[in-house]
Write a structure and sequence with these properties.
Low-confidence stretches: none
Order of helices and strands: EEHEEEEHEEEHEEHEHEEEHEHH
Largest sheet: 6 strands, mixed
Shape: globular
Strand order of the largest sheet: 11-10-9-12-13-16
Mean pLDDT: 93
Helix content: 25-40%
Number of helices: 8
Oligomer: single chain
Bound molecules: flavin-adenine dinucleotide, FE2/S2 (inorganic) cluster
């Protein structure tokens, strides 16, 4: 059992959990992730240690409330409670090299995964600019990241209540791609790195490849076991089938088959929506004194 030492809402739908997990804290490297099973009857989800303390044995996970599991965690867990399993660290650490001038992008909550890698690259002597593009009420870590990189740029995109969610997301993609284009036109970067929704990663990649700059992307296919056994996370990279959990999560953006990745990511959307709706019904009943 993994005790929750601290829990707080950082911004809209973004929750910070500081968790006692000495075996992860001791070994985790930037770029790796854990698979969390928060509840006995719950699903496994991959999450990324954002900061950690090896001596004190804790890690911080930040979740975006996306579907049933992240919503359950936000609703049902409080400081002092425990998370059932935290398996890891899993996946390959990010490549730690002197690349030179790096643009490290996090879209939405992707910034929590970009941050530990960007920080380590900066410590190695790279010149690191982090770029965070997200909805205005979802800006996070703006007080922390600037201390650990060369410059941190935040582009908050207003949420337009008159528009539906897909239209709002298109606004984020527009700001993201326009900002990246402006930055690449102004300065010479040696590497671009990005974490975020696959559609946004592809949109940014399409800009980056016009400039011929190397780009790495952390991929987020659905993961179940995180150890290469279930096959859920398969992606096509360089014409070969790879498992994001054991071969990645970081891949060369030029080699990724983005169409296949994006199609597979949306495969379970209807079921995810149904699970969330059913959970919310039960949760509301429980709030009104019924059974949960
Ligand atoms: C390597 C890796 C690191 C990640 N790190 C973070 C992080 O630090 N913070 C954060 O908020 N999110 C992170 N994610 C995404 C996070 O795992 C999903 O948002 C989460 O699984 C959604 O679960 P849900 O039940 O709330 O939503 P639902 O959308 O209902 O998900 C249902 C099921 O699908 C799977 N699933 C759905 N979307 C994803 C996805 N994008 N990636 C993997 N599995 C998915 C889950 O296993 C879950 O069991 C990471 C994903 C990967 C692959
Ligand atoms: S998550 Fe099962 S093979 Fe990668």
């Amino acid at each position: 059992m993994y005790r929750i030492l601290e829990k707080k809402e950082l911004a809209m739908r973004n929750i910070w959990y500081k968790i006692e997990a000495p075996h992860v804290a001791r070994k985790v490297q930037p770029g790796q992730f854990v698979i969390v099973r928060a509840f006995p009857n719950g699903e496994r989800i991959p999450l990324t240690p954002v900061i950690w303390n090896r001596e004190e044995g804790w890690i911080v996970l930040i979740t975006f409330i996306r579907g049933k599991t992240t919503m359950r965690m936000a609703n049902e867990l409080k400081p002092g409670d425990s998370i059932l399993n935290v398996a890891g660290p899993l996946g390959n650490p990010a490549e730690m090299e002197k690349f030179g001038k790096i643009l490290a992008i996090g879209a939405y909550t992707g910034i929590v995964e970009t941050f530990p890698i960007a920080r380590a690259w900066h410590e190695l002597g790279n010149d690191v600019t982090t770029l965070h593009v997200t909805f205005e009420p979802m800006v996070i870590l703006n007080d922390m990241i600037p201390d650990y990189v060369d410059r941190h740029i935040v582009k908050p995109v207003p949420l337009d209540p008159k528009e539906d969610f897909p239209t709002n997301m298109k606004n984020v993609t527009k700001v993201l791609t326009e900002t990246v284009r402006e930055m690449l036109e102004k300065e010479n970067y040696d590497l671009v790195f990005m974490v975020g929704p696959a559609g946004d990663q592809r949109a940014v990649f399409n800009v980056v490849k016009e400039f011929g700059i190397p780009m790495k992307a952390d991929l987020h296919p659905i993961m179940v076991d995180g150890t290469g056994m279930c096959g859920a996370c398969r992606v096509t990279v360089g014409g070969e089938v790879k498992f994001a959990c054991i071969d990645g999560p970081e891949f060369d953006a030029y080699q990724v088959d983005w169409d296949v990745l994006i199609a597979r990511t949306g495969y379970y959307t209807d079921m995810e929506r149904k699970a969330m709706e059913e959970y919310m019904k039960l949760f509301e009943q429980a709030l009104q004194g019924g059974e949960q």
